[in-house]
Amino acid sequence: MTDLAAPPPAADPLYLPGQWDMTPGVVTYVNHGAFGGVPLPVRAERQSWQQLIDANPMDFYRRRMAGELDRSRLAIARFLGSDEQGVALTQNTTTGIATVLASLPLGPGDRILVTDHIYGAILWNVDLAARRTGAVVDAVSVPLAANDDEAVEAILGGVREGTKYAVLDHISSATAMLFPIGRIVAALHERGVRVIVDGAHAPGSVPVDLSALGADYWAGNIHKWAGAPRGTAGLYASPELRADLKPFPISWREPEGFPYSFSHVGTVDQTAWLAAPSGIEFFEKLGWDAVRGHNNTLARTGQLLIADEIGASLAGMPGEGVDDYPLPMRLIPLESVPATYDACTALTDRLSREYLIECPVTPWNGRTLLRICAQLYNSEACYERVAEALKDLL
pTM score, two decimals? Predict the structure, then answer.
């Protein structure tokens, strides 16, 4: 296999493995989209908060915490293009959307629209809301190769009498597909459907402007592509819907209402939230456009390299034929691997155990998909190692 310690291309100023722990020689990590990765300066910022709190917990929790959390929340709201009162902080996107679903005035016969790209934990929460209230879930299929017009058409085709809400991806997880979410929101609003957006992968990987997007609800992780410590997400609600959103459990700031009511839920470690602005600043100093362009190009390079080495056709994959498809995640189909959970898990685990490669393999609609990601600690050599391992295993 390729030497794990092979030097990076010296001409690439945005190859910065020294800013993360996922460095060459330890593991080939091309799965940033799953759990993110914390830059070392951000981890140091979080540790400084932990030390400050432990020096005098009473002072921090009683006198300083509210103001410091508001500072972080405002930085995240600005980053997401929201008004100052529009974003509350939650642990992750699933928590945010589950909170929204628990607040909806659903009843028997109401319908919730989803697609076949929906994230598993989100679907479970949708199903729970439906069972609890007697609502009905309608799922529509959106082909992997769908262009923007076709994606909009497929989703609108699922609207029926009684469709009150749609729960849709901004960027899908397993299928790495960027949806034209602004167009979809506008079209569904014309039909009287409120839209809840799973934006887990959006912050940092694509520009986000929640005020312009117009979604009724939106939740996205800051800890995937925006450098925050894990456990940091933003939950947005449009102004007329904020009063009805309640955290679980009820917090000490409940009388202040959304978004403050989400900020003080018991004595928990919220240092990830406090350090989150330093993650945004880390990438801002490098330039968001430069970072996104670098990662998108590298992901495309890795996709083409792996597909060529293993003889996989990329026909029908999201973004295929679009050179500037703006995502740092890409798919390679593995047609020889059975599209079952057991087979995909076994291959994912063998890549990790035998080759020190972390790269997810997932079944989706009868196909087996390998998803690669690109971040500033990756280089082309990472994808060469993935290709060599797959040639051995397949």
Answer: 0.94
